[in-house]
């Protein structure tokens, strides 16, 4: 009975309501979640943060706009799905996140004791398939471990966002996307200093630099 | 009246003599043969699972050579059971210890461990509750399962027996089995059945008496003295005993024995108390040797978790807490607790949680025994499967599962949700909470997404705060004051400030001397 059913369901003309999502993913190759910034979206593979892959965000210092870059996407995701923060460098401040539209009920914060545990926890969350996005603050990690994370993200169809220091720019990465945030501080007046998002690596796209006035 | 006729015919089979007319001077109140089958309403079918080698099981790991378990005391010690190598040398049940040692000088002998046998039998009873809700323990070494209602579910007697036997094989037991309409009858038939033959003796009420009649009286488990007395009368089989006049049998051998015969043949009611599994799971093992590394325990722990999972399956329950005790020879036991987010019973899940938890455990002394104990049982109903094979809520269970495994390895304090608190002091306006139990209050105030664990004091240069360059105040002040009621009184003026590195910071100045500047958050 079961085999007969499965055989029947292989027929492409049968549309299965609750499988629509996965079928679409299989059809369109790279699926992405909008960043909430249209001027950035158009330069990213699939038009946003790629699902089933890692994305690296390289920043000089934490607290220079990297959260603002990801918060609109998180606000959208936490409405229905769950987001995990692994080893954030500071306290994600609940009142501020709520004010930006994030449902903190769907947020989990993990603070592992050491770097090995950070990678372990990140991998578990990425692989589980129940987290829409996993944010990880990792420093220098060898490529083998990054590849494990990438495979985990693929297995769980999860958006993996890695926040990393500029040292890693010299290394190759298995991530589908690598962005660098920078500031044009040639001028003295910080208020008018322009922010830039450099797309350093984009699977299926070209490296570009975007002036990010939205940040 | 049909029932009574049937009963009568039952005894025609064995040519049981008609009840003798009672002599007028016969004062012995011989129990009347019950004319009718007990009016229990439904017909029963008892499956007896008899473990002839049960008493060997507690010592299974001790000796590889010939082993015999002894019963009795002092000079009366006789062989109660022996393993295959011992049997090969001619050791049989009932042999005196001296005779046994003469036949096999290297024979390893141990005394019966009644308590261990009883525990083992209880474990097996718990296990066999998966086949029927009525399981009765029949010491020594047998279980009685009432399976009439289970036949349809398991696909008939043969299929059910195969399942029981395969299951027991994996547990390392070789039972002899028999099925009969009466409990005592099934027990006797099973005792008379050879475990090695692996066949199941079955009979219906028509053939019951005939089958029983062929058995030797040894299967009744009556005292040796009684058996010798009967054998002196030339009564050796059950058939012979059934042929004896009832009143004479009752007078000479005892009413209890007559009742045994009545029960076996289905002439008297044979009520059995159903075994009720204990309310909490608790099981343990003593290790054959001291174990220093947790990794070496995995075999026995896996077995314990399997038992737990079997137990929970039968009880249709799940647990939320587990405690594992590791006992040491001369220091207090180590306790390892595992908590689950919601009741669970699946073996793979429980086992992986326990493994995660054990990775961080390093007992200071070698382990000599382990015990696994469950917390309170929670009802966990079975789940209906989807016709098309993709259960809609499949993913629902995996979020708690993920959080549990993170908890197990990292500790619950490292895995939290965050929530807001109605409070004006910024450092108290948030809290770590159990995942998924956040309260969220919206605030219209401008607050940074990153908060420092504790405010960081800033150096000041010409009265201006300094953080990687001079800070420029962008907006403010926002005054936040007081908290005298809990001793954490504050009096601060908050500003949003920017520096040359492009950071937007949330800083404050104490309103009390020395009026220093602090960094409290970053807008990220």
Short description:
The complex is a heterodimer of chains A (215) and B (524). Chain A has 215 residues and is of the alpha/beta class.
Question: How would you describe this structure to a colleague?
Answer:
Helices cover 32% and strands 25% of the residues of chain A. In chain A, the strands form two sheets. Chain A has an eight-stranded mixed sheet, sandwiched between helices. In chain A, strands 1-2 form a two-stranded antiparallel sheet. In chain A, strand 7, helix 7 and strand 8 form a beta-alpha-beta unit. In chain A, helix 6 runs parallel beside helix 7. Chain A is globular, with a radius of gyration of 19 Å. About 5% of the residues of chain A have low confidence. With 524 residues, chain B is an alpha+beta fold. The longest helix of chain B has 18 residues. Chain B is elongated. The termini of chain B are far apart. At the A-B interface, helix 1, helix 4, strand 5, helix 5 and strand 6 of A face helix 15, strand 14, strand 15 and strand 16 of B. Strand 6 of chain A pairs antiparallel with strand 14 of chain B.
Determine the number of helices of chain B (DSSP H or I, runs of at least 4 residues). Answer: 15
Q: Element order, helices and strands of chain A? A: HHEHEEHEEHEHEHEEEE
Number of DSSP helical runs of chain A: 7
The overall pLDDT average of chain A reads 83
Give the N-terminus to C-terminus distance of chain A in angstroms. Answer: 57 Å
Cross-sheet strand order for the largest sheet of chain A: 6-4-7-8-3-9-10-11
Biggest sheet overview of chain A: 8 strands, mixed
Structural class of chain A: alpha/beta
Q: Stretches of chain A where pLDDT falls below 50 for ≥5 residues?
A: 18-28
Q: Which chains make the largest contact?
A: A-B, 56 and 57 residues
Largest sheet of chain B: 6 strands, antiparallel
Oligomer: heterodimer
Strand percentage of chain A lies at 15-25%
Ranges of chain B with pLDDT <50 over ≥5 residues? 1-41, 389-394
Global shape of chain A = globular
């Amino acid at each position: 009975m079961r085999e007969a059913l499965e055989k029947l369901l292989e027929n492409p003309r049968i549309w299965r309501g609750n499988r629509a999502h996965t079928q679409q993913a299989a059809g369109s190759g790279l699926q992405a979640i909008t960043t909430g910034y249209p001027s950035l979206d158009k330069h990213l593979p699939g038009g946003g943060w790629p699902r089933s892959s890692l994305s690296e965000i390289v920043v000089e210092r934490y607290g220079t706009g990297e959260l603002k870059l990801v918060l609109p996407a998180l606000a959208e995701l936490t409405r229905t799905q769950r987001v995990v923060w692994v080893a954030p460098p500071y306290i994600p401040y609940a009142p501020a996140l709520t004010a930006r539209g994030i449902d903190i009920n769907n947020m989990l914060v993990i603070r592992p004791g050491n770097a090995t545990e950070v990678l372990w926890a990140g991998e578990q969350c990425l692989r589980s398939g129940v987290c829409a996005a996993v944010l990880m603050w990792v420093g220098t990690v060898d490529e083998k471990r990054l590849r494990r994370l990438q495979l985990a993200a693929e297995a769980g169809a999860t958006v993996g966002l890695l926040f990393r220091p500029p040292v890693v720019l010299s290394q190759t990465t298995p991530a589908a996307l690598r962005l660098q945030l920078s500031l044009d501080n040639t001028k003295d007046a910080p208020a008018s200093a322009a922010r830039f998002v450099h797309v350093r690596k984009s699977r299926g796209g070209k490296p570009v630099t975007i002036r990010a006035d939205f940040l | 009246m049909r029932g009574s006729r049937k009963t009568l015919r039952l005894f025609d089979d064995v040519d049981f003599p008609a009840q003798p007319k009672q002599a007028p001077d016969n004062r012995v109140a011989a129990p009347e043969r019950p004319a009718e089958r007990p009016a229990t309403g439904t017909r029963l079918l008892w499956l007896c699972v008899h473990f002839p080698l049960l008493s060997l099981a507690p010592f299974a790991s001790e000796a590889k050579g010939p082993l015999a378990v002894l019963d009795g005391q002092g000079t009366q010690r006789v062989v109660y059971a022996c393993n295959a190598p011992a049997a090969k040398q001619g050791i049989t049940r009932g042999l005196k210890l001296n005779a046994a040692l003469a036949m096999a000088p290297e024979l390893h002998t141990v005394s019966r461990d009644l308590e261990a046998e009883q525990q083992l039998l209880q474990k097996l009873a718990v296990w066999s509750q998966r086949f029927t809700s009525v399981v009765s323990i029949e010491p020594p070494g047998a279980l009685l399962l009432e399976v009439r209602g289970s036949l349809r579910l398991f696909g008939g007697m043969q299929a059910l027996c195969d399942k029981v036997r395969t299951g027991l094989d994996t547990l390392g037991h070789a039972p002899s089995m028999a099925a009969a309409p009466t409990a005592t009858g099934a027990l006797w038939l099973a005792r008379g059945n050879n475990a090695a033959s692996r066949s199941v003796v079955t009979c219906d009420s028509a053939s019951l008496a005939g089958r029983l009649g062929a058995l030797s009286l040894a299967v009744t488990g009556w005292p040796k003295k009684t058996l010798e007395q009967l054998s002196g009368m030339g009564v050796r089989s059950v058939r012979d005993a059934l042929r004896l006049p009832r009143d004479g049998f009752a007078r000479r051998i005892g009413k209890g024995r007559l009742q045994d015969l009545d029960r076996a043949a289905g002439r008297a009611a044979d009520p059995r108390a159903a075994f009720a599994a204990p309310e909490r799971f608790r099981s343990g093992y003593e290790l054959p040797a001291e174990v220093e590394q947790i990794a070496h325990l995995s075999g026995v722990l896996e077995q314990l978790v399997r038992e737990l999972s079997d137990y929970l399956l039968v009880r249709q329950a799940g647990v939320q807490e587990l405690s594992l005790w590791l006992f040491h020879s001369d220091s207090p036991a180590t306790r390892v607790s595992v908590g689950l987010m919601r009741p669970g019973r699946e073996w793979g899940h429980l086992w992986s949680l326990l493994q995660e938890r054990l990775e961080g455990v390093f007992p200071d002394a070698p382990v000599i025994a382990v015990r696994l104990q469950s917390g309170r049982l929670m009802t966990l109903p079975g789940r209906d499967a989807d016709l098309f094979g993709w259960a809609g809520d499949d993913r629902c269970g995996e979020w708690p599962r993920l959080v549990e495994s993170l908890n197990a390895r990292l500790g619950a304090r490292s895995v939290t949700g965050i929530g807001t608190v109605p409070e004006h002091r910024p450092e108290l306006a948030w809290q770590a909470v159990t995942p998924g139990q956040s309260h969220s209050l919206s605030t219209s105030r401008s607050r940074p997404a990153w908060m420092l664990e504790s405010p960081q004091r800033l150096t000041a240069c010409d009265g201006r705060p300094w953080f990687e360059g001079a800070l420029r105040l962008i907006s403010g002040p926002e005054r936040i004051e007081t908290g005298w009621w809990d001793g954490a009184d504050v009096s601060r003026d908050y500003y949003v400030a920017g520096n040359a590195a492009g950071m937007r910071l949330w800083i404050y100045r104490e309103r009390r001397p020395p009026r220093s500047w602090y960094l409290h958050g970053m807008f990220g």
